[in-house]
Design brief:
By secondary structure, this protein is an alpha/beta fold. The chain is built from 6 helices and 7 strands, in the order αβαβαββαββαβα.
């Protein structure tokens, strides 16, 4: 190959590689700028990873401005998963499912389960099941585990806690249970009661370090974690 031809081909290859290099670098920086824009766009944005009207009402007690987005996760318990482990995992999964789509935002995830005689009690779904649940709870202590996860989606460890609430029920008659169910229709509440309403008269005692945990979101812990994320609540 003539020397001039070899030199020409060499410079051509360098030029083409240079173009490819700059193109890739350009794509990299465009991606970086775009992700930075997303982060700045969501900076200080707070999202509640829940469609629960109860959690939304609770969070509005301490925050004026936040969004609610419903996470789509599988809530099936793992084999041999303890109730506290299960509820903590779900809170984190809910928070991360929303955080990954909203970089830079502070996301709050929460979940709650009710345990009676070592078994998890779900939402009754209808009045007949609600009557059965309250009949089984009558005169017994029921444990509610309310989990909380607050994350900004970074590589830092997520803030996770579980608040335990012990609810001791009065001895309830069949008529009292039916009257209550007819009054508040708590078919979307695990345990079949609304403690923020008439349901409070069903109890002998409530033991918890956070009174709002039983409703669905522990606000004392939520406020603590938000302040750690530099959110000014006062």
């Amino acid at each position: 190959m003539p020397l001039k031809t070899a030199i020409f081909l060499g410079f051509s290859i360098i030029f083409l590689l240079s173009k490819d290099f700059h193109s890739k670098m350009s794509q990299f920086y465009r991606k970086l700028i775009f992700e930075s824009h997303l982060s700045m766009k969501n900076y200080n944005k707070i999202i509640l990873a829940s469609s629960s009207v109860y959690r939304k009402e609770l969070l509005s007690r301490i925050l004026d401005d936040f969004d609610c987005l419903s996470p789509d996760i599988d809530e099936t318990p793992f084999p041999d998963e303890e109730p506290i482990e299960h509820v903590a995992r779900l809170a984190e999964q809910k928070a991360l499912a929303i955080a990954v789509k909203n970089p830079g935002a502070i996301v709050i995830g929460s979940d709650q389960i009710c345990v009676l005689d070592g078994k998890i009690i779900g939402k009754p779904g209808n009045q007949a099941n609600a009557i059965d649940q309250l009949s089984n709870c009558s005169g017994k202590s029921v444990y509610f585990y309310t989990s909380l996860c607050v994350t900004n989606g970074s590589s830092e460890p997520n803030d996770i806690t579980v608040v335990t609430t012990k609810v001791t029920f009065k001895e309830l008659t069949e008529q009292q249970i039916k009257n209550y169910i007819e009054s508040e229709n708590p078919i979307d509440c695990a345990g079949s009661f609304k403690c923020e309403g008439l349901g409070i008269v069903l109890f002998e005692a409530i033991e918890s370090k956070d009174p709002t945990a039983l409703i669905g979101l522990p606000l004392i812990e939520t406020a603590k974690y938000l302040e750690q994320h530099k959110v000014n609540l006062l």
